[in-house]
């Protein structure tokens, strides 16, 4: 089985959101299962490659010149990095002010043209694209090949001017939307299979409320749309052997978690009180319900809890978090940015994790937290539904789920979680259920492989 896997991110080369980490986990698991995966990424920063080869690509004039550098990266394996005009940037998508690069359509259409050229030459068994950044590939392929599109988030669709329709060679009509070009809409309709990154998210996006304007196209897919939950890398996210944390531990022996908790309290500059530590490791964007979390701080002393927030994103959210941490430093700790080692220490040392997302295609933090015995508090959306069951509603619960996606619902869930945390036997049972669950990529990768096998056996559907 030869799969060409095209994406705009792949950890650790470039990671902005969950796409990069999810893609890396899936590729690693597929390769472990014997799949020959060609990873194709934009060459954002001229990354050094071992055993490098360079090849000029046959792309349309508007997409070139284009070159592919192939080689190896330690810890990643073989990758192909594509250089096209304008692709090299400090951030793949936005400038220093958080605004999207004005030439993003030019950059990612050119990248997609290069991916299509590689696919046409290499003739893989499957072409697997991810999100809108590689969606134009499906409108540019010259050879028939089974195609898969994974939707990591439906909110970003790559809308651009209608002039791009003239550059697409396969069913440009499917990419047309209100006089403009919608790359994701076209790819959804052309792909042989569309994967949502969790089963519940796959159901949500078929509805007017969750479909971001594409619910009609998604509902029309029928069984061509499947939901497959993402996984986490259980070689990286495990308290049994994590070198970044103060002490290792397991579901059978949780004593090391207390050591990690004490170390985290010292690192955050707090007194060693018996007040639950609620961690958040997240992007500061509206989707993640950051405002709901910060509004909930008004009730921190009454519930009680202390909030430790690590993340970066919209400035007004960072300013709000900074204000709260300055006003009441014993209740709120905030660091603007991302630190991988600190993320591990937060998951290991915190008592609870808060994810008050307004929508969440899958989410990785809740699975990472559960692997470390940190009990998640979530909203009932997307992949959070598939991974966290409410311990007040189920004898096999793994966390607590808010009954509404608002401040009242979040505070209620926090209160119930703190009440559960204060009961040692119940707390330990919830922790162990989360730690003993299989959050790895083993089962999701097998489901991808089964899907690939079915597509190769049946062949692509000619939609030209």
Structure description:
Strands 3-4-5-2-1-6-7-10-11 form a nine-stranded mixed β-sheet, with helices on both faces. It has helices at residues 18-32, 104-122, 183-190, 199-204, 215-220, 255-268, 290-296, 315-327, 340-349, 365-371, 382-387, 407-421, 424-436, 442-458, and strands spanning 2-6, 36-42, 50-56, 67-73, 77-83, 126-130, 147-151, 176-177, 180-181, 193-196, 225-227, 277-284, 306-313, 332-336, 352-355, 375-378, 400-401. 34% of the residues lie in helices and 18% in strands. It starts with a strand and ends in a 6-residue tail after the last helix. The radius of gyration is 23 Å and the shape is globular. By secondary structure, the protein is an alpha/beta fold. Strand 4 and strand 5 (77-83) form a beta hairpin. The chain has 14 helices and 17 strands. The chain folds into two domains: 2-231 and 442-458, Rossmann fold; 255-436, 3-Layer(aba) Sandwich (Rossmann fold).
Number of strands: 17
CATH class of the largest domain equals Alpha Beta
- Euclidean distance between termini CA atoms: 25 Å
Question: Shape, please?
Answer: globular
CATH homology-level superfamily of the largest domain: Glycogen Phosphorylase B
- Helical element count? 14
Kindly state the percentage of residues in helix: 25-40%
The main sheet orders its strands as 3-4-5-2-1-6-7-10-11
CATH topology of the largest domain: Rossmann fold
Rg from alpha-carbon coordinates: 23 Å
CATH architecture of the largest domain: 3-Layer(aba) Sandwich
